[in-house]
Amino acid sequence: MRSRSVAPPAPAPVSRLVLATVLAVVMLAVACALSVAVGSRSIPLGVVVDTLLHPGRDDEIGLIVLGNRVPRTVVGLLAGAALGVAGAVMQGITRNPLADPSILGVNAGAALAVVVGIAVFGISGTATYLPFAFAGAALAALLVYGIAAVARGGLTPVGLALSGAVTAAALSSVTTAVLVTNASLLDQLRFWQVGALAGKDLGTAGVVVAPVVVGLVIAVGLGRSLNTLALGDELAASLGQRVVLVRAVGAVVTVLLAGSAVAAAGPIAFVGLAVPHAVRRLSGPDHRWTILLSAVVAPALLLVADVIGRVVAYPGELQVGIVTALIGAPVFIALVRSRVVRGL
């Protein structure tokens, strides 16, 4: 993408940042409360708190809260934070407001690699999914970037998004082809392939917590560099910024976070697109705050989407990936139609 020199964005007022932080934390707290209390059987919040304070109970309510809803809430927190921050970092390193792990095909690449690993190598469990998800995410990102780079017009925001959409569609088609030729594998992954928090345990969270935390910490440290990068490559370099290194580290962070989220919960779409844009309306363009707030708001959105999926199809449920797609698709259309696609 062509470099450009612009004035650095004005920071948001402190009072506005404090308000944004308070709202984000309240949203997350409410989302967590809903996640453990609402479902096919609603449980009063007081009973939920008592169950959490006395984890030894083995009755039906204890099984629902501790054995089902708490683990899926914890996995939702990790996957949501990973997807939200991955989207914020991708938008920063590409200066592309349409960047998102699902739109740019990173999630689809990770999902295909996991499915191939199961079908060909017989892997099982989140711990063995992780390396395949990381490899698939990295290869998909390189493929999308390569296609966009050689296309007429170069690495424009819309061109990169179109390259990602085509790649994601192709990889998803291959994933579906592998699944439909293996009935047992299709039955095993029919929910995971659209993105799901149902049926997760704390073991899943334990496997992905380390790469997610490492990715989040590095992403927060990249915030200042991404602010400089937003001024344009030439100006950033003249200010001492190592542009190639920043983009390389950002790409590694994206692979860590998106790969972890896919390994844990499947290829959930649009969280990394919608959340960074939403938090910028309150926090301003400072990437440090965008990343921090995305790590709080994204899991809140994911948990609320999961709760919505439980209640709208009672006594069954819609998987969370379907709900986030319904939420995120209009956001994507609005962004494509707006002037914001010119760049960040």
Short description, anyone?
With 344 residues, this protein is an all-alpha fold.
What Rg is obtained from the alpha carbons, in whole angstroms? 20 Å
Helix fraction bin: over 70%
Tally of DSSP helical segments: 13
Fold-level CATH name: ABC transporter involved in vitamin B12 uptake, BtuC
- Class derived from helix and strand content: mainly alpha
Give the full name of the CATH homologous superfamily.
ABC transporter involved in vitamin B12 uptake, BtuC
| CA-CA gap between termini | 12 Å
Number of domains: 1
Mean pLDDT: 89
Main location: membrane
Subcellular location: Cell membrane
Membrane topology: Multi-pass membrane protein
Pfam families: FecCD
Q: Your description of this structure?
A:
This protein has about 350 residues and is mostly helical. The protein has a single domain (about 15-340), classed as ABC transporter involved in vitamin B12 uptake, BtuC (Orthogonal Bundle), CATH 1.10.3470. About 75% of the residues lie in helices and about 0% in strands. The protein contains 13 helices and no strands. It has helices spanning about 15-35, 45-55, 60-95, 105-120, 125-150, 155-180, 185-190, 200-230, 235-240, 245-265, 270-285, 285-310, 320-335. Helix 1 (about 15-35) packs antiparallel against helix 3 (about 60-95) and helix 4 runs parallel beside helix 6 (about 155-180). The longest helix has about 35 residues, at about 60-95. The radius of gyration is 20 Å and the shape is globular.
